[in-house]
Amino acid sequence: METEYDDFRASVRSLAADKIAPYAADVDEKERFPEEAWAALRAADLPGLPYDEKLGGSGADLLSQVIAVEEVAAACGSSALVLLVNWAGTSTVVSHGSDELKSLIVPKVASGSAGAAWCMTEPTVGSDLSGIRTSATRQGGDWVLNGQKRFISNAPWAEWYAVLARSGENDFGVFMVHRDDTGVSFGPHEKKMGMRGSPTADVILDDCRIPAVRVVADPMQGYQYINGELNVSRALIAAQALGIAQGAFNAAVAYTSEREQFGQPLARFQMLRGMVADLAVKVSSARALLYEAVALIVAGDPRARARISMAKLLCSDNAMAVTTDAVQLYGGYGFTREYPVERMMRDVKITQIYEGTNQIQRLVIAKDVYARQVRS
């Protein structure tokens, strides 16, 4: 399955090694936007991967997107997050939006000249999207939005924000808000443990008025639209976790091959070899499950929802274990910022939390297990 993608993987890996990795530590240390990485991604046309050629993209399949996120994340988790959040922020527009709305938003995002984000989480709402309080009220031909969205990746850098808002008592819509719309403001930059190069802030909507053309399809069906995109977005988050794990694994193998103790390389010690073997299994098994889930998503197989929850769970849990053990393999040096593994350990923690916590993924998986038992 992977062989036909080898050249693409090699090209993204080379770009990440040459033009992203050298700046990753500085991006993390200064908590700044990864400008060099974004310029390199734009030059390689990677922001346009998932979009139709008619909209300025390259029409690549989901596995290509997953591979791109993996390879970028292996060099810099923050850079990978900026990229994949752009895709998530435009996903409902691509899937359900009018041609006019697609033409308004997608070409600039595909070129990398504009960023996107999606806004679901609120101060009192995380996994339970049905508790959203942000409101959207129809006024003439416009919609007026009021509310506050929290922990929004790519804010305030992004131009476009896909806002999930309550449009009726039990109905929700997806509304495309522009950064320069009247009534839009942003909270302070979040000080985070990891992914410090990914801008994150509240998006505040105070009587924000947008024209009806910026509503994604039916303003009462937004919850269903967002739910329909979760398979793909969870695949991308799983890929991000997997990429960070691969990056930490590669760094630990290189370090233990070169570092000597007691007159021989660390790689010669049996207990250390056992740790490395376990890490190799964690990375490879996570990749196998993710790619299987991606194939099910592409095929439209109903098993995809539970399988991608399994993949998101396994990739992020394994990545947390891999990065933690990579720090251990570096010894005291792993605890310093001189080497990348401590950053990778901090970065990867969030992959167990966002896009549905791993506790939520376990509930999805268990629900599917019992449902299949009943059907059989």
TrEMBL record:
UniProt key word Acyltransferase: no
Boundaries of every Acyl-CoA dehydrogenase/oxidase C-terminal domain copy: 221-369
Domain Acyl-CoA dehydrogenase/oxidase N-terminal: 4-112
Keyword Flavoprotein found: yes
Occurrences of domain Acyl-CoA oxidase/dehydrogenase middle (ranges): 118-208
Sample GO molecular function, one term: flavin adenine dinucleotide binding
Cofactor section: FAD
Keywords: FAD, Flavoprotein, Oxidoreductase
Family recorded in the similarity comment: Belongs to the acyl-CoA dehydrogenase family.
Protein name per the record: Acyl-CoA dehydrogenase
Organism per entry: Saccharopolyspora rhizosphaerae
